[in-house]
Write a structure and sequence with these properties.
Aminopeptidase, alpha/beta, elongated, 2 domains, Glucose Oxidase, domain 1, 3-stranded mixed β-sheet, binds zinc ion
């Protein structure tokens, strides 16, 4: 609503202003036929429950889908069968291998001053504790900077606890800061002589669920057991440490395997006029394994595939090819996105986008287009406006699984979801279907359908202003 008022005000101002005043941003016209098709697609998407059925099927028939696991392999086969049944073409798996990691035990208890269980999750890449676990006094730091500045004698032989909090934000802006401790706690704590590392869970809730997550840097340099502590238990730990010495028993057992099988699932709607020009829609199939991977990223898989299916059912396919990249092994190091970028380095990607931020209501359409292509970006936003979507900035990120193609200069867009509550559930045992609102899910499908159709049916080139560095996980 705010953007509508802004647009009207800008237009009125422009018409009354002199020639040297900046004109209203140009919006590319679209054909009457495209307008009719977009309206039909938008209306159908808002009635369509295919996305719900997909994510419900994934979490029910498969469940959690840890990267490189048998469950992830079953999910690939499940997805291939579903996409073929929905009429996609060129449906296939592109295999690759990854270093597999899983925790088979992750337990922690406060031993003194009073016995209490702590709900924890081993961080991806964590080492095992010695058999039977380890016990040590806890030393707390308010953030990573405090740990980095610590004297080794205050840390040596202890369990480090980094108690940094994550800020709640609609766009998830708090994640980048909070996630730094997940990757850095173990190597820094190890250098200072600690025996293990605990972090306050990277999340915005106050529940008793630990948040899983990768700590990929441990693979290269650190051999320290590392785990995330549920927010409620992190609070207990912080209060106890403030009162006196606290001893914790930590027992983590992990398994690793080199060259575990993973893979990307690919499916297409072949373009009727320009089949070699690709509109890439991505999501990832793997998940952490305490929850069901409903919002991370079952919903993304459901949203992009349901949007593409609605376009496939049109009487006439769009000019360009719409390709789905249902990536494997995102969580443990964006292996699927990297494998895709390597395998398809010579493909002509017109634009790429990923849905990997849950199923919250989309509120903005951001681009990373050349200036010359922005009028068509605004034309797409106009068709998204009835869904409550404003124009976002021209600095879109795209998403982890398309960061590889983005780094080669492929334009990307963000269909920005309201992530205010995403990190309450993210990577926890509570990432289940209950975290998804079916109405928001349909709004997501409608927005993706409009964007994908308008990108694939146009002959606009969106070439990005400059190659951006690849995003980290
Ligand atoms: Zn994800
Ligand atoms: Zn994730």
């Amino acid at each position: 609503m705010r953007s509508m008022m802004f647009a009207v005000a800008t237009l009125a101002f422009a018409s009354a202003a002199s020639a040297q005043q900046a004109p209203a941003p140009a919006v590319a016209p679209i054909s009457a036929e495209m307008q009719r098709t977009v309206e039909r697609l938008r209306a159908r998407a808002l009635q369509d429950d295919t996305a719900w059925q997909t994510v419900e099927g994934l979490v029910t028939d498969i469940g959690p889908r840890l990267a490189g696991s048998d469950a992830e392999a079953r999910a690939r086969d499940w997805m291939v069968a579903r996409l073929r049944a929905q009429g996609f073409t060129n449906v296939h798996i592109e295999p690759f291998t990854i270093p597999f990691w899983d925790a088979t035990r992750e337990e922690a208890h406060i031993i003194s001053p009073g016995a209490q269980r702590l709900v924890i999750a081993a961080l991806g890449g964590s080492a095992s504790t010695p058999a039977g676990g380890l016990e040590a006094e806890v030393v707390r730091f308010t953030d990573m900077a405090a740990l980095q500045a610590a004297a080794p004698e205050s840390v040596r032989g202890r369990i480090v606890f980094v108690d940094e909090r994550m800020v709640r934000a609609q766009d998830g802006a708090g994640y980048g800061v909070a996630v730094a401790k997940r990757g850095n706690c173990a190597p820094v704590a190890q250098r200072l002589g600690a025996v293990a590392c605990l972090i306050r869970a990277v999340g915005t809730d106050s529940n008793r669920f630990a948040h899983q997550g990768g700590s990929s840097r441990q693979r290269e340099s650190a051999h320290l057991p590392a785990a995330s502590v549920s927010p409620a238990d992190a609070d207990i730990l912080a209060r106890l440490v403030a009162r006196g010495p606290v001893r914790v028993h930590l027992d983590i057992e992990t398994v690793t395997r080199e060259d575990a099988p993973s893979g990307n699932v690919i499916a297409e709607i072949r373009g009727r006029e320009r089949p070699n020009e690709i509109v890439l829609l991505a999501a990832h199939l793997d998940s952490w394994d305490l929850g069901q991977g409903a919002i991370d990223d079952g919903s993304g898989v459901a949203i992009v595939s349901a949007a593409a299916r609605l376009i496939r059912e049109l009487p006439r396919r769009p000019r360009r090819t719409i390709r789905l990249l249902i990536a494997g092994s995102e969580e443990t190091g964006v292996f699927g996105g990297a494998a895709y970028a390597r395998a398809h380095a010579n493909d002509t990607h017109i634009v790429a986008a990923e849905s990997d931020f849950g199923a919250g209501h989309i509120y903005a359409f951001g681009t990373r287009f050349s200036e010359a292509a922005l009028p068509y970006g605004r034309a797409i936003q106009r068709q998204l406006a009835p869904l409550g979507i404003i124009m976002g900035p021209n600095t879109a990120d795209g998403g982890a699984d398309i960061s590889g193609v983005r780094a080669t200069g492929v334009p990307v867009v963000d269909l920005s979801q309201d992530g205010s509550y995403y990190f309450d559930y993210h990577h926890t045992a509570n990432d289940t279907l209950y975290a998804i609102d079916p109405e928001d899910l349909r709004q997501n499908v409608a927005a993706w359908t409009v964007f994908a159709y308008m990108a694939a049916e146009s002959d606009w080139v969106f070439a990005a202003p400059a190659a951006a560095p690849a995003a980290t996980q």
